[in-house]
Amino acid sequence: MNSSLSRLFCLLLGLVLAAGCGRQPASSPAGSPGLVKVRFQTDWFPQPEHGGYYQALAKGYYAEEGLEVEILPGGPNAQVMSSVAVGRADLGMTNGDDVIVAVARGLPIKMVAAEMQRDPQGILFHEEHPLRSLRDLEGKTLMAGAGSTWLEVLSKKLGIKFNLMPLVGDLARFMNDPTFVQQCFVTNEPYFARQRGAQVGALLIASDEYEPYRVIFTGRDYLAKHPEVVRKFVRASVRGWIDYLGGDPAAANRLLAAKRSDLPAEFMTYSIKAMNDYRLVAGDPAKGERVGLLTAARIQKQIDLLREIGVLDRHVGVADVAALEFVPAP
């Protein structure tokens, strides 16, 4: 693990230890008799990539399970794992890789469901200089988030040599250079690049060699004390995702638009289509994948890969990083 990540996880672990007994018990909030309050932390500002949760909220799926869910928006400085670990939130969402690495560093958290079967991170390129596979990055300069696990996979597992440029939060350099490639979310940046007149494509980073989940996770202490709350939250969230992507997303989109005036309807339509086209949430039925499903085999494969590229500080097993019994049967 690089030194910046080591310092980060030391800090997170210190926050957990300092928090001690700071976690609040599950309770019924005033004005909502019988409903258990649940705080769910997202990784970014409200967006269609969170649509399943907002659909479950808007259509009353959480309430039907006896839950009053508060969705806590993230942002550039959102520390989702530490928020959950110290009890500022009850559940959260993040990349499955990050949970495995954090557990290996001692953070007391656990995956309980897959938010997405495929991580939506991708590489944005101009169609006049297309990328057919990750190996086409050989010799190129790539703008991406330093310290990302997938970059370690490219260099150490696949042996691809590339130059790394630190990621900035705009498309200016990309728009001015037709040979430029940069990290993106396939549900996001391609839309805005096309709106600005570029002909672009996006290559999903997920592959047979590297297929991390995006996951719903919780703290070990919260899971031990409130397993049925976790089960109900997962069940309602899975229902929300199925409805959002396969039914009418209007209910969630109205909530998203109310929280963010900068989300045009066309963008939300694009993001939903991208999630379906790339099978990000539902996965590939031919492989037995479905909304929410975590499998021991895939998690073990990811643990083995992370150990191989040297980002795990100690041995962890599937049972250390995930609880597989909370995903509802199909």
Could you characterize the architecture of this molecule?
The chain has 330 residues and is an alpha/beta fold. The chain folds into 2 domains: 3-117 and 211-326, Periplasmic binding protein-like II (D-Maltodextrin-Binding Protein, domain 2); 121-204, 3-Layer(aba) Sandwich (D-Maltodextrin-Binding Protein, domain 2), CATH 3.40.190. 40% of the residues lie in helices and 17% in strands. It has 14 helices and 10 strands. The strands form 2 sheets. The protein has a 5-stranded mixed sheet with strand order 2-1-3-10-4. The protein has a 5-stranded mixed sheet with strand order 7-6-8-5-9, with helices on one face. α2 (51-58) packs across α11 (250-259). The longest helix has 20 residues, at 227-246. The relative contact order is 0.19.
Overall shape: it is globular
> What is the annotated CATH architecture of the largest domain?
3-Layer(aba) Sandwich
**CATH classification, class level of the largest domain:** Alpha Beta
Q: Could you state the order of secondary-structure elements as H and E?
A: HEHHEHEHEEEHEHEHEEHHHHHH
Tally of distinct domains: 2
Radius of gyration: 20 Å
Strand content: 15-25%
CATH H-level superfamily title of the largest domain: Periplasmic binding protein-like II
How are the strands ordered across the major sheet? 2-1-3-10-4
Which class of secondary structure composition applies to the elements? alpha/beta
Instruction: Sketch the major β-sheet.
Output: 5 strands, mixed
Q: Care to count the β-strands?
A: 10
